[in-house]
Amino acid sequence: AQKVTQAQTEISVVEKEDVTLDCVYETRDTTYYLFWYKQPPSGELVFLIRRNSFDEQNEISGRYSWNFQKSTSSFNFTITASQVVDSAVYFCALENYGGATNKLIFGTGTLLAVQP
Amino acid sequence: DSGVTQTPKHLITATGQRVTLRCSPRSGDLSVYWYQQSLDQGLQFLIQYYNGEERAKGNILERFSAQQFPDLHSELNLSSLELGDSALYFCASSVRGTPYNEQFFGPGTRLTVL
After folding, report:
1. B-chain residues within 8 Å CB-CB of A43?
2. CB–CB of B56 and A108 under 8 A?
């Protein structure tokens, strides 16, 4: 079965702290995609990154970085020097390779609160 | 702006009623997906259409139905509404609807059932 687990329900940090959001996934597919989305208080889903299962290189984009480790089935997301504007719910998702479909399976989300 | 539009933005209705949510995919995208985000169930996949035909179904209730029209817009119909149907409903679209095709999400329709 395909599953995404985000064990951290809520994280609270003070501005400028670094924070890592954990994501563990389960899939029997050898080829798959993983995603991170941000959902600010306004409600929309903002795409952050898509990573395929063949690319285990870490990715950095500004203050954001992602660590993908197939050996532990994890795709963790780190925000460096957090800012108040980073406060949001963050979702990790797995693309379900069902042959005919590419529906996304989401984790339960991590609520990040960055205090000034 | 993802290019996916959803109307209305907010909808407030009463139990037992029926509503229709509308989604227009990005230009050129043939596949449309519907997702529901509720407090109980989190973000879950409901149904997918590709070029007018149903392609995949998730945990969609029998009281819910969807359709994709020849102009590729899609509608999600929710009937006999219950309090628990209150949720944020997202539509997404992709080019082909097969693996490795990125999905682009609309802004969502927030449904409140009183």
Report:
1. 88, 107-108, 110
2. no
**SS3 label, residue A86:** helix
Both structure tokens of A104: 């996304």
Taking the CA atoms of residue A9, residue A37, residue B9 and residue B88 in that order, the dihedral angle to the nearest 10 degrees is -40
Are β-strands B10-13 and B109-113 bridged in parallel, bridged antiparallel, or unpaired? Answer: parallel
User: For residue range B14-26, what is the model confidence (pLDDT) as tens digits?
Assistant: 999 999 999 999 9
Among B43, B101, B102, select the one facing A106 at the smallest CB separation. B43
Task: Give the separation between CA B46 and CA A62, rounded to whole angstroms.
Answer: 34
CA-closest candidate to residue A8, choices A113, A80, A109, A81 = A109
A115 vs A87: CA distance, rounded Å: 9
pLDDT tens-digit map of B41-86: 899 999 999 999 999 899 899 999 999 999 999 999 999 999 999 9
Interface mutation target, options A23, A32, A102, A108, chain B, most CBs of B under 10 Å: A102
Secondary structure class of A22 (helix, strand, coil): coil
